[in-house]
């Protein structure tokens, strides 16, 4: 049970399967991007989204200074039958002049709403690089399904599950490099609640277990509490928690700041 996936299957077969999944997902993403402008010209229901969030924290005492900057940009498109999202985040932090965070995450996802109400298929491609988690690079790609238990304008609760191909380059606790491939189950709990058009509570929470090693799992959570000044400007408090159990690294980030959201 503790063996790596590549030891359970011939390595060529594993890598071939991984490459096929990634190639098919990238082809699907590229096809939708090419058809985006053409389809938008013939549909009044196409909606575009731009979001930017700037949060951070500063702590200065006689003993030293710590600061954290957390930037996030989101681009999105949604129609009745399909939606796309491109999310990018960058976290930079120092404490007493020493680097603590230099973390990048970029993800592109497609959601297809073609079957049952409140149900959709999804595809995901994700890249991560993190100084704090000792991730030199991590590439994830996969497919899955999702169901919205609550699906209203001001109340949204969604559960999703799928399989990802993970190709990663980490640094272990003893400082050695760890390059590996594995398949992961990816479970996500996603929600958004708006109270009286003023208070916003939302979040996205993942747990990604390796299918070949029960001790190899990733946790990634982002949860926000926001106060809406108007339709496009919010004041936010945000908590991020990340853990990579393979190298026993984790971080917890608390930040606050402004976010800008615009639909067109």
Order of helices and strands: HHEEEEEEEEEEEE
The end-to-end distance, rounded to whole angstroms, is 50 Å
Structural class: mainly beta
Low-confidence stretches: 1-11, 37-43
Description:
There is one protein chain. The protein has 264 residues and is mainly beta. The protein is built from two helices and twelve strands, in the order ααββββββββββββ. It has helices spanning 5-8, 11-40, and strands at 47-61, 64-78, 82-95, 98-112, 119-130, 135-151, 155-171, 177-195, 199-210, 217-228, 233-244, 249-263. The protein has a twelve-stranded antiparallel β-barrel with strand order 1-2-3-4-5-6-7-8-9-10-11-12. β8 (177-195) and β9 form a beta hairpin. The protein starts with a helix and ends with a strand.
Features:
single chain; 264 residues; mainly beta; twelve-stranded antiparallel β-barrel; disordered N terminus
List the helices and strands and how they pair.
Blueprint: H1 5-8, H2 11-40, E1 47-61, E2 64-78, E3 82-95, E4 98-112, E5 119-130, E6 135-151, E7 155-171, E8 177-195, E9 199-210, E10 217-228, E11 233-244, E12 249-263
Antiparallel strand pairs: 1-2, 1-12, 2-3, 3-4, 4-5, 5-6, 6-7, 7-8, 8-9, 9-10, 10-11, 11-12
Quick summary of this structure?
The chain is mainly β.
């Amino acid at each position: 049970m503790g063996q790596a996936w590549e030891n359970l299957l011939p390595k060529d077969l594993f890598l071939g399967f991984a490459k096929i999944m990634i190639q098919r997902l990238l082809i699907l993403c590229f096809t939708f991007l090419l058809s985006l402008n053409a389809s938008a010209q013939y549909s009044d229901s196409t909606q575009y989204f731009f979001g930017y969030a700037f949060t951070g924290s500063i702590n200065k005492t006689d003993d030293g200074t710590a600061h954290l900057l957390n930037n996030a940009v989101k681009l999105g498109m949604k129609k009745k039958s399909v939606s796309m999202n491109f999310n990018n985040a960058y976290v930079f932090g120092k404490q007493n002049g020493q680097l603590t965070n230099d973390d990048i995450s970029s993800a592109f996802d497609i959601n297809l709403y073609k079957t049952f109400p409140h149900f959709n298929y999804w595809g995901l491609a994700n890249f991560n690089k993190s100084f704090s988690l000792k991730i030199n690079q991590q590439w994830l790609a996969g497919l899955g399904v999702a169901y919205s238990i609550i699906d209203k304008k001001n109340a949204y609760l969604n559960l999703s599950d799928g399989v990802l191909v993970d190709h990663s380059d980490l640094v272990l606790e003893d400082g050695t490099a760890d390059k590996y491939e594995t398949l992961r189950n990816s479970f996500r709990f996603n929600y958004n609640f708006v109270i009286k058009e003023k208070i916003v509570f939302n979040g996205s929470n993942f747990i990604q277990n390796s299918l070949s090693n029960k001790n190899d799992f990733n946790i990634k959570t982002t949860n926000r509490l926001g106060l809406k000044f108007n339709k496009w400007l919010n004041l936010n408090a945000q908590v991020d928690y990340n853990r990579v159990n393979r190298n026993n690294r984790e971080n917890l980030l608390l930040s606050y700041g402004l976010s800008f959201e615009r639909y067109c």
